């Protein structure tokens, strides 16, 4: 499984998130961008970078990836509520601070690095952007 699949799987595994965006194949969680005429609230995720750790004589397979997650909604409050559900309480039962295996990918940690609320004129919605650092094994 890829890190993209693990991110999608983890987002779909958190009940606080699926209570807002739906569950299973009807979950409004999208890679890269929203579809045309989206139903909000929704989440988009994009991999920004992936740095590999190197060691003398071998590569241990440890990667630090940066992902941007966007919580989309029709109101500022609902966008912030969805972002809060993604972040969770820091105990690892949400997206942030998760440690474990997700869809065969071993994740060492997921760390919230930055968060910015914005308004998007098109499609006339609010977005809270969160940058996460994800340490995982290839």
Descriptive notes:
The protein is an alpha+beta fold. The chain has a single domain (3-137), classed as 2-Layer Sandwich (STM4215-like). Helix content is 22%, strand content 42%. It is built from three helices and six strands; from the N terminus they run ααβββαβββ. It has helices spanning 3-13, 15-21, 76-87; strands at residues 29-31, 42-52, 62-73, 100-102, 105-120, 125-137. Strands 1-2-3-6-5-4 form a six-stranded mixed β-sheet. The longest helix has 12 residues, at 76-87. The protein is elongated.
Q: CATH topology, what is it called?
A: STM4215-like
Distance between the termini: 9 Å
Q: Which percent range describes the beta-strand content?
A: 35-45%
- State the secondary-structure class: alpha+beta
Number of strands: 6
Give the helices and strands, then pairings.
Elements: H1 3-13, H2 15-21, E1 29-31, E2 42-52, E3 62-73, H3 76-87, E4 100-102, E5 105-120, E6 125-137
Parallel strand pairs: 1-2
Antiparallel strand pairs: 2-3, 3-6, 4-5, 5-6
Protein traits:
single chain, 138 residues, alpha+beta, STM4215-like, 6-stranded mixed β-sheet, 3 helices, elongated
Short description:
By secondary structure, this protein is α+β, with helices and mostly antiparallel strands. Helices cover 22% and strands 42% of the residues.
